[in-house]
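Module 6 notes. Inverse folding takes a fixed backbone as the condition and produces residue identities as the prediction. Think of it as a translation problem where the source language is geometry and the target language is the twenty amino acids. Below is one complete input and output pair. Work through it position by position during the lab.
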């Protein structure tokens, strides 16, 4: 039988294989998602509305969402509203998402007052913290509401920024921690790509000698979209950017892991030292990629993807990062057990960013930790 040709043909050929694998594991809803997504758009590109006069920095790489930052390389545009459509993996329903960056650059629906008399909690992370959910549904908005309801007024400062590495969290903290003097700094490490992005020479980074190096926009990417085509992920192609890119890279370049582990350790130590110098506590959060949470639901994938899935590359990365934090005696919330216990596909959006249910779960896991930390800081 002749095989389909081209990208559309490859996707059509893979859909039945993945669907059958999911049905075989009893995931009928996920099989329905695959069929539905093949015929109906469930997400859209972002439309950005800019409040003229709020932001003075130039656009970063012609982006409407990000501007140039002299320390971290780039940061979110202040005074911007972002609109898009997005759906959970389950239930399948396109939702209108509205995100707002206040005049100070944080993700919130209102502007900050000129004087912040209540305690501040600074959140650092990548696009998962920035979110593909409306601002009101973001974990930091949920936490601010919940804490105020129990008599702990607090300002949640969400500085999440897409395309950040673990080291860029430190660089952004260098600007924001002295300025806002938070009681707690929460660092949300996305285990799907934050480690690989330590290898990216196009952004401010550490070399193998742990020296700070500015980004070079002309440098070659460590991994490009060509690798995604080679993996032939079909309906799971968005998972390439949210986990598989990193897993594939380290599966083929295990010799780079010691250097990356050393960079991660350096970033952890630098964040602890910076926060400590300004009287802040650090709460680390490990956010798992979808392939770590639902490995059995990817049983239909073959080839290179099957190799790194069977080898447990992402699990090894998770275990190593958790060990780095634990051996230092640091405060860490490992979300993998809670996400696996929940087990719902609704934890993630169809682009494999954490979605509304996931944000609610993260907030519930963090709430008691933050209450304790804020009580101790008073």
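Target side of the pair, the amino acids:
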């Amino acid at each position: 039988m002749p095989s389909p040709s081209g990208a559309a043909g490859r996707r059509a050929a893979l859909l039945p294989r993945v669907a059958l694998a999911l049905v075989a594991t009893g995931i009928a809803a996920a099989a329905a998602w695959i069929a539905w997504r093949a015929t109906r758009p469930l997400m859209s590109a972002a439309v950005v509305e800019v409040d003229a006069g709020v932001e003075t920095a130039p656009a970063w790489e012609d982006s409407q969402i990000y501007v140039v930052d002299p320390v971290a390389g780039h940061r979110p545009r202040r005074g911007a509203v972002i609109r898009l459509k997005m759906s959970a993996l389950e239930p399948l329903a396109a939702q209108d998402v509205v995100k707002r960056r206040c005049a100070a650059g944080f993700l919130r629906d209102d502007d900050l007052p000129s004087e912040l008399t209540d305690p501040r909690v600074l959140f650092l992370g990548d696009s998962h913290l920035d979110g593909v959910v409306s601002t009101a549904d973001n974990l930091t908005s949920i936490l601010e509401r919940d804490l105020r309801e129990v008599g702990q007024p607090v300002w949640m400062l969400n500085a999440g920024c897409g395309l950040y590495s673990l080291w860029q969290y430190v660089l952004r903290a260098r600007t924001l921690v002295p300025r806002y003097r938070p009681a707690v700094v929460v660092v949300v490490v996305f285990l799907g790509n934050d480690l690989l992005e330590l290898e990216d020479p196009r952004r401010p980074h550490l070399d193998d000698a742990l020296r700070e190096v500015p980004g070079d926009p002309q440098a070659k990417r460590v991994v490009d979209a060509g690798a995604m085509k080679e993996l032939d992920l079909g309906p799971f192609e968005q998972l390439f950017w949210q986990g598989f890119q990193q897993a594939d890279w380290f599966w083929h370049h295990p010799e780079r892991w010691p250097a990356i582990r050393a960079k991660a350790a350096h970033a952890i130590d630098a964040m602890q030292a910076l926060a400590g110098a300004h009287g802040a506590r650090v709460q680390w959060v490990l956010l798992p990629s979808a392939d770590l949470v639902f490995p059995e639901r990817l049983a239909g994938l073959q080839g290179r993807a099957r190799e790194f899935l069977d080898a447990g590359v992402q699990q090894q990365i998770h275990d190593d990062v958790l060990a780095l934090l634990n051996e230092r005696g640091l405060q860490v919330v490992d979300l993998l057990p809670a996400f696996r216990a929940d087990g719902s596909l609704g934890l993630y959006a169809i682009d494999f960013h954490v979605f509304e249910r996931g944000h609610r779960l993260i907030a519930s896991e963090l709430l008691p930790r933050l209450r304790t930390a804020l009580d101790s800081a008073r």
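Reference fact for the lab report: The longest strand covers residues 80-86.
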